[in-house]
Amino acid sequence: MKVDNRHMLRGNIRRRLSVSRHPGMFLLVSLLFVMPTDGVAQDFQAQDPSGIPVDHSVFDRLLKRYVDDNGLVNYKAWKAQDEETLRNYLKSMGKVDQDSLGRSEKLTFWINAYNALTIQGILEFYPVKSIKDKVSRILGFNIWDDYPMTVNGKEHSLNHIEHKILRKMGEPRIHFAIVCASVGCPRLRNEAYTEAKLNSQLDDQAGYFFAQPRNLRIDRAGKTVWLSSILNWFGGDFGGRDRAQLDFAGTVVEEENDRKFLQSEGLKVKYLDYDWSLNEQEYTSLKEGN
After folding, report:
1. Helices 198-210 and 242-252 sit at what angle, rounded to 10 degrees?
2. Per the domain annotation, does 223 fall within a domain?
3. Are the beta carbons of 21 and 150 closer than 8 angstroms?
4. Which among 74, 149, 69 is positioned nearest to 116, based on CA atoms?
5. What is the pLDDT along the chain (290 residues), one digit of tens a residue?
6. Residue 246: which domain range?
7. Do 166 and 250 reside in the same domain of the chain?
8. Could you tell me if residue 76 is inside a domain?
9. What is the pTM (predicted TM-score) of this model?
């Protein structure tokens, strides 16, 4: 009998990694890797049917503990001390009634879900040099499609969360909030998103994003603006091609001279190379040492 190894592997990974199922496997993982005395307390509070707001405080404490102000992550320590804590947070999200959430709370929920699921995926396979290491044409596994979380009995992959839920909500600033564990991504905030602060958090993320040379460079003499590849990939979410993207950037950049220049006519738009290196805290020191 011929066996399709690709489908067997994909099925095994799905069974092993579904964050809201198979507690026996994850209990084994926690015994191997978790150090409860050093980790974040696991006082999870799932939303009850009466509509109490979703509690992201556990994720908030994890981010504060393992993410620095530049958005770089101490994956090594997180895996050793709090991998199971993050997994339990994702499990608690699986119990949320989506129909009870308003727009802002739903945005908050899925932004946090995307970031938490991405981090959990990295921790699962750590050490890795890039999230793209977990995309294999030969084995047929793609972390963006085959590492799901379950909410109300339905599996949601990273691609589904981004393209079928968040992008459908018409909020372009989500592209500066969801983080694919790469240096070229937006900064991972060292706090969870909350409904009360969501708008200011998204504004802050957008401003910080365009303040980084890896995301925006201006050549005044050549009348050329270099933008992050994110605006190239998702141009439609920012209103279209060149002019629309420049107009959007012009609404969030912090330097007044840059804002005025982005409003100029006849500008050429080019796109910067994307850095898929892991957004790990050791990354900076390694680069500086080369």
Report:
1. 110
2. yes
3. yes
4. 149
5. 444 444 554 555 554 445 444 333 333 333 333 333 345 544 444 444 445 567 899 999 999 999 999 999 999 999 999 999 999 999 999 999 887 899 999 999 999 999 999 999 999 999 999 999 998 766 779 999 999 999 989 999 999 999 999 999 999 999 999 999 999 999 999 999 999 999 999 999 999 999 999 999 999 999 999 999 999 999 999 999 999 999 999 999 989 999 999 999 999 999 999 999 999 997 544 444 43
6. 215-271
7. no
8. yes
9. 0.82
